[in-house]
Amino acid sequence: MSDKVSSAPRLSTGRPWSLNSAHHRAALGVFMVIVIAHWAEHLAQAYQIWGLGWKPPQARGVLGMPFPWLISSEWLHYGYALVMLFFLILLRPGFVGRSRTWWTVALAIQFWHHIEHLLLLLQSQTGHFLAGRAVPTSILQLFLPRVELHLFYNTVVFIPMVVAMYLHLRPNRAEADAMACSCTPQPV
Q1: Does some domain include residue 77?
Q2: With 0-12 CB in 10 A as exposed, 13-18 as middle and 19+ as buried, what is 167?
Q3: Where are the membrane-spanning stretches (predicted)?
Q4: In the chain, which ranges are E strands?
Q5: 3-class SS at 171?
Q6: What is the pLDDT of residue 4?
Q7: pLDDT tens, residue by residue, 53-106
Q8: Looking at the domain assignment, is residue 109 inside a domain?
């Protein structure tokens, strides 16, 4: 492997993998806007509950206030879980080395989060609820309230994503040599 790092990343313009080459940085940016908007909703809901003292059914985040059906739509929550899973899978080939490991950790956790949302969706569609509960209930929701559980899930998926992106934008020499995306490596 060469000690010299190319000043320009090797870019491919083929489709759909151009998201992991010429358009990787832009795709990561769009994905992060979606993720942060979702985070804002959960943080607003948490503030409504713990900061303002609202009961969970009234604490619906920002969009849930004018559109209350959003907060109770298992289809919407499952759809977001699928979008997260899709982008984590789609953008993974653009990561190398340490950043790929962290991105894969986020992907694995999101896969489980997706399974939990699929379970909730199936219960809402069939009317048969886990453990005799009165509402759709995920497996970990048997141990943690739903609001806290979703804050936990979003945190444990988000942290390895951030670590992956940090390492991706600051690759070591070997990682920079292996990168083929538009994230302009600055080897350390």
Answers
A1: yes
A2: buried
A3: 75-95, 151-169
A4: none
A5: coil
A6: 40
A7: 999 889 888 888 888 888 888 999 999 999 999 999 999 999 999 999 999 999
A8: yes
Side chain identity, residue 4: K
Number of separate domains in the chain:
1
- Residues 4, 6, 11: CA angle, nearest 5 degrees: 150
Q: How many residues are recorded in the chain?
A: 188
112-138 confidence digits (pLDDT tens):
999 999 999 999 999 999 999 999 999
DSSP string, 17-54: GGGGTTTHHHHHHHHHHHHHHHHHHHHHHHIIIIIS--
Cβ(91)–Cβ(20) under 8 Å? yes
Is 166 within a domain?
yes
Query: Could you give the C-alpha distances from 72 to 60, 130, 132, in angstroms and in order?
Result: 9, 17, 19
> Do you find a cis peptide bond into 57, omega within 30 degrees of 0?
no
In the numeric block, the tokens 């943080």 are attached to 43
Nearest residue to 167 via CA among 108, 84, 101, 88 = 101
| Angle at CA of residue 74, ends 162 and 19, nearest 5° | 40
Compute the distance between CA of residue 86 and CA of residue 35 in angstroms, rounded to an integer. 13
CB 77 within 8 A of CB 120: yes
Q: What Å distances lie between residue 18 and 11, 50, 82, 128, CA to CA?
A: 8, 44, 21, 44
pLDDT > 70: percent of the chain: 88
148 Cβ neighbours under 8 A, 6+ residues apart: none
